[in-house]
């Protein structure tokens, strides 16, 4: 019966969509099939005007153990498959970053290797204080090179290198301290914390959120002067939006804005 279960469960309510990795018996590993399903779901959500915020969660006591090593062993001699697997994984991570809606990782349990990469790729992350994180590829002779991309864009170089070179687990409190996650909370209030954050964000103009998220990631890669030039243009264009005018007027009139998402 387990094989009949969907690889990823999808649930939507009041503008918040939750995608739940649903292969706990395989430690929610990122097999090719899992990655392809995630990619399809992300494409759908990108076009879904009802979804304002995406929560990425997992079923079971492991958030995601990274790539499916059994699948990799079965394809030791299939270089084309190996390359396609890592390219598909990289595609999914970029889909998350490029998704025109904020993405929150809800982490309970362990997130290792590409699972840690998945957390780092999300815009925000909230974890149970019992959660643990690692990029342990070095321990099995396969350096976490693709997870390194997301990790090094979230934490400082030395913290990233420590995780990558030692392969050791770090706890949620440490992960919060180095910036891998936003908050480490008691597991009993994990859902409350995640969905309160999601509802707060979902209450904003989706058009404004789209503009801001895209600009955030673009300016990160620019020199300081170019970043200010770019974001000045973004703000001037944003000011022409219906919701920007509505928001400013509502603030000055001391009333709640009525978003048009335009």
From TrEMBL:
May play a role in fatty acid biosynthesis and insulin sensitivity. This is Enoyl-CoA hydratase domain-containing protein 3, mitochondrial. Transmembrane segments: none annotated. InterPro entries: ClpP/crotonase-like_dom_sf, Enoyl-CoA_hydra/iso, Enoyl-CoA_hydra_C, Mitochondrial_ECH-domain. The keyword Ribonucleoprotein does not apply. One of its GO terms (molecular function) is enoyl-CoA hydratase activity. Keywords: Fatty acid metabolism, Lipid metabolism, Lyase, Transit peptide. Belongs to the enoyl-CoA hydratase/isomerase family. It comes from Marinobacter qingdaonensis.
